């Protein structure tokens, strides 16, 4: 591909991100306010709700732990959709979305692991158990970390986008396999014991703050994601401008 | 196709090829384990199959980064990309050759290493069988990661980081099939069949991903 057609394509790609920047600039303050409101209400309910009769106060860890775990999985879903967008429709914003979501997803996965560990110590008496769910989450964290490492190793954003999209989709197909295999691996070694925290039989007293916190976390993710995407777009624009100025300097240099 | 297979195989075993180095690495890993956990023969016999599986996993990872890199360096990859034969098939054949040079030789070396770990004959047989049937999946998963990192100057470490999480199911079912063959309550056939199913699945997914990644290097 020649240089001119490359720059033309870059400019036509910028048309859409500009609209995205304008839209997100209008949307972001409202979303931030909504997040703050949800967090205020959710935290109020979380703090004032009764402690569990068996687990005492530690049950409140759930209000951070469960939403971040849900989000960690949802973010991988967002990344997979973005990867499809990159590979199939070549949407210019899709790879920005995937790239911006990676560190956030890794952070939420890490948060779920850390809070789970903090919760596990008083409840199970151990920081870490090789339980199926813990293990599969740990693997998810490793996959996020691998994707970030790959993205950092590649310099050209377009190439990084396509390669990481391929890897995201490969991982997406693998996640159910890992999940089920780890489940089975666990039951082979130790019979079902841990992680029985009510499930659907959860009381409304706990469910209300949990759902509020889940909504708050989801809004938080969208805030962070939008902000990260804006940053990524601006960062790429700066890079393109720098390259252009360098090129024009190189072109004008011999003439001057 | 057959030519390509034989060529890759020959390259792997000639000087500078990765085939024998992988085997040596496997030997070294297995030899190191008794130093780490002590020379208790009973314990070694119990965890021996798992040690062999982990060693094989690491040894299979070792040579993966060279799967496409040498071809890229001397330009053969460009020729392969220009062929009329679908790239997916070429990748599949290259994977088969790589497996024959790594996974198959590892599986064949199990009887010798099993003696070092105090395994009895059924355990050696079960480990050989599961390794021979499980390592193709490792190579096929690795092909995707190797193709993704082929353009990187130091892709080797990254390949391992990317492949290991994806290879965990293979390890789980490989080890549980081996255990199932040896101990009465656990069953052998279901994990073994799932292992074979994983092979088939990755025989489709791995080359597809690798071919897509290699194509995306082009433009």
UniProtKB/TrEMBL annotation, chain A:
<keyword id="KW-0201">Cytochrome c-type biogenesis</keyword>
<keyword id="KW-1003">Cell membrane</keyword>
<dbReference type="InterPro" id="IPR045062">
    <property type="entry name" value="Cyt_c_biogenesis_CcsA/CcmC"/>
</dbReference>
<keyword id="KW-0472">Membrane</keyword>
<dbReference type="InterPro" id="IPR003557">
    <property type="entry name" value="Cyt_c_biogenesis_CcmC"/>
</dbReference>
<dbReference type="Pfam" id="PF01578">
    <property type="entry name" value="Cytochrom_C_asm"/>
</dbReference>
<dbReference type="GO" id="GO:0020037">
    <property type="term" value="F:heme binding"/>
</dbReference>
<dbReference type="GO" id="GO:0015232">
    <property type="term" value="F:heme transmembrane transporter activity"/>
</dbReference>
<feature type="domain" description="Cytochrome c assembly protein">
    <location>
        <begin position="14"/>
        <end position="189"/>
    </location>
</feature>
<keyword id="KW-0813">Transport</keyword>
<dbReference type="InterPro" id="IPR002541">
    <property type="entry name" value="Cyt_c_assembly"/>
</dbReference>
<comment type="function">
    <text>Required for the export of heme to the periplasm for the biogenesis of c-type cytochromes.</text>
</comment>
<feature type="transmembrane region" description="Helical">
    <location>
        <begin position="206"/>
        <end position="227"/>
    </location>
</feature>
<feature type="transmembrane region" description="Helical">
    <location>
        <begin position="101"/>
        <end position="120"/>
    </location>
</feature>
<keyword id="KW-1133">Transmembrane helix</keyword>
<feature type="transmembrane region" description="Helical">
    <location>
        <begin position="163"/>
        <end position="186"/>
    </location>
</feature>
<keyword id="KW-0812">Transmembrane</keyword>
<comment type="similarity">
    <text>Belongs to the CcmC/CycZ/HelC family.</text>
</comment>
<dbReference type="GO" id="GO:0017004">
    <property type="term" value="P:cytochrome complex assembly"/>
</dbReference>
<keyword id="KW-0997">Cell inner membrane</keyword>
<feature type="transmembrane region" description="Helical">
    <location>
        <begin position="27"/>
        <end position="48"/>
    </location>
</feature>
<protein>
    <recommendedName>
        <fullName>Heme exporter protein C</fullName>
    </recommendedName>
</protein>
Automatic annotation (TrEMBL), chain B:
<keyword id="KW-1133">Transmembrane helix</keyword>
<dbReference type="GO" id="GO:0005886">
    <property type="term" value="C:plasma membrane"/>
</dbReference>
<protein>
    <recommendedName>
        <fullName>Heme exporter protein B</fullName>
    </recommendedName>
</protein>
<dbReference type="Pfam" id="PF03379">
    <property type="entry name" value="CcmB"/>
</dbReference>
<feature type="transmembrane region" description="Helical">
    <location>
        <begin position="12"/>
        <end position="37"/>
    </location>
</feature>
<dbReference type="InterPro" id="IPR003544">
    <property type="entry name" value="Cyt_c_biogenesis_CcmB"/>
</dbReference>
<feature type="transmembrane region" description="Helical">
    <location>
        <begin position="85"/>
        <end position="108"/>
    </location>
</feature>
<dbReference type="GO" id="GO:0015232">
    <property type="term" value="F:heme transmembrane transporter activity"/>
</dbReference>
<keyword id="KW-0812">Transmembrane</keyword>
<feature type="transmembrane region" description="Helical">
    <location>
        <begin position="43"/>
        <end position="64"/>
    </location>
</feature>
<comment type="similarity">
    <text>Belongs to the CcmB/CycW/HelB family.</text>
</comment>
<dbReference type="InterPro" id="IPR026031">
    <property type="entry name" value="Cyt_c_CcmB_bac"/>
</dbReference>
<comment type="function">
    <text>Required for the export of heme to the periplasm for the biogenesis of c-type cytochromes.</text>
</comment>
<keyword id="KW-0997">Cell inner membrane</keyword>
<dbReference type="GO" id="GO:0017004">
    <property type="term" value="P:cytochrome complex assembly"/>
</dbReference>
<feature type="transmembrane region" description="Helical">
    <location>
        <begin position="157"/>
        <end position="176"/>
    </location>
</feature>
<feature type="transmembrane region" description="Helical">
    <location>
        <begin position="128"/>
        <end position="150"/>
    </location>
</feature>
<keyword id="KW-0813">Transport</keyword>
<keyword id="KW-0201">Cytochrome c-type biogenesis</keyword>
<feature type="transmembrane region" description="Helical">
    <location>
        <begin position="188"/>
        <end position="214"/>
    </location>
</feature>
<keyword id="KW-0472">Membrane</keyword>
<keyword id="KW-1003">Cell membrane</keyword>
